[in-house]
Amino acid sequence: MIAVFGAGAIGCWVGGRLAAGGADVTLIGRARVMDELSDGLTTTELDGPPRSVRVTATTDPAAAAGATIVLVTVKSAQTAEAGATLAKVLPDGATVLSLQNGVRNPGVLRTALPGRRVLAAMVPWNVVRKERGSYHRGTTGVLMVEEALEARPFAEALRAAGIAHELRSDITAVAWTKLVMNLNNAINALAGVPLAEELAQRDYRRVLAAAMREAMVACRAANQPLAKLAPVPTAWVPRILESPDWMFRTIARRMLAVDPHARSSMWDDLEAKRTTEIDYLQGEVLALAEKVGTPAPVNALLVRLVREAERGGRRDFSGAELRKLANV
Question: Is the pTM above the cut of 0.90?
Answer without folding.
Answer: yes
